[in-house]
Design a protein that fits this description.
single chain; two-stranded antiparallel sheet
């Protein structure tokens, strides 16, 4: 780099002196300019080579020090030394991961827009086909865990397009990069150590340990902590393979929902209309009221008839306000909120499950 800079500056200066009647020695100021230029160029070059990757001080060197610290902490967590050596061999800083985390979509979309992209007709068609193709296995798992098969398929389709889109980021590099960035360090550090545990237990090889930019993994898109809590080795081969074994994928989804309070006798909710302003709405548990309460406050089925006379508590939600779609949602919707806190996501899962139930 130094030689290149000097040669470039000297070449420019020689061109100038060839055009002049004076030699370089007759113009000592040019030497001073040359020295100053070289000094300035070297300073700029040194800064460029060591410049942080972003304005908040992140750098490759800083990341290396951070990863060394992670390795020391991991060594104290009873993880096999050979596992640690394999895991830390190829961890690299991924600025694109940090950029993705900071650049979440700002444009407000409506629920109608969201459903059009998340549950288009082609996905409904594939969902019905997948449901029918794996019906025997799905029914078996549904019976074991008390979760209707259509919801298993709906979550599977929403999370990974039935296993087709799982992400191609190194899980360890993504999580380490996000932890290093610092805004949610504890969350991503805890998941990083959980990812090491997954490797140590032999569920997947480090080379195949891929996921989304945020570290969500496999066909279920579990974060590593969720994997340790809910993933299931349903086929009994010693590995909880949410990447490639459908039995493990379906059982892991069902186990999550069952563990978080799913009601096998209930559904998720229904779209409704309002005949007058309601006293309150929202997903707060204190706002869950019997259907009779909502009926007396002017809430009606989407076709305008009265609500069922069933002893069921429900929350009234208006994701886009009173002018958008309005739903009464039940306990199972609250369970879906534990999977993903977006009401749009919950509605899309419920909507796809209804389409699967109808068969189109």
């Amino acid at each position: 780099m130094l030689v290149e800079i000097i040669n470039r500056l000297v070449a420019r200066l020689m061109v100038h002196t060839k055009r002049s009647s004076y030699s370089l020695l007759d113009k000592p100021l040019n030497v001073a300019v040359l020295i100053s230029s070289i000094t300035l160029s070297l300073s700029v070059s040194a800064y460029a080579e060591n410049k942080p990757s972003s304005d908040n001080g992140l750098s490759e060197e800083g990341f290396k020090r951070y990863v060394a610290q992670l390795k020391n902490e991991a060594a104290a967590k009873d993880i096999d030394k050979a596992t640690l050596e394999r895991a830390f061999m190829d961890i690299t800083f991924r600025p694109t991961v940090v950029k993705s985390d900071k650049s979440q979509p700002e444009k407000k979309i409506t629920l109608d827009d969201y459903l059009a992209t998340r549950v288009p007709d082609w996905k409904v068609k594939q969902a019905v086909e997948q449901y029918n193709e794996h019906k025997a296995l799905l029914d078996e798992i549904a019976e074991k865990y008390g979760v209707q098969a259509r919801f298993i398929v709906a979550l599977w389709g929403n999370e990974s397009n039935f296993g087709k889109i799982q992400g191609n980021f190194s899980v360890l590099s993504a999580l380490a990069s996000l932890a290093y960035e610092g805004r949610r360090e504890k969350l991503f550090k805890d998941n990083f150590f959980a990812a090491l545990r997954i490797l140590d237990e032999g569920h997947i090889d480090v080379k195949a340990f891929k996921g989304s930019w945020a570290g969500a993994m496999g066909q279920t898109q579990f974060m590593p902590i969720s994997f340790l809590n809910y993933a299931v080795d349903y086929d009994g081969d010693g590995r909880k393979d949410i990447w490639g074994t459908k039995a493990d994928v379906f059982a892991s989804i069902a186990n999550y929902l069952s563990s978080e309070g799913w009601d096998s006798e209930g559904t998720w909710g229904r779209q409704v209309t309002l005949t007058k302003p309601v006293p309150f709405s929202g997903l707060s548990k204190s706002n869950m009221k019997p259907l009779s309460f909502w009926n007396s406050n002017g809430v009606r089925r989407y076709n305008g008839s009265e609500l069922p006379k069933a002893n069921v508590d429900a929350s009234l939600i208006m994701p886009d306000g009173e002018k958008g779609r309005i739903y009464l949602v039940y306990n199972n919707f609250h369970t879906l909120m534990k999977w993903n806190r977006s009401s749009y996501f919950g509605v899309s899962v419920g909507y796809l499950s209804e389409r699967i139930k109808r068969g189109y």
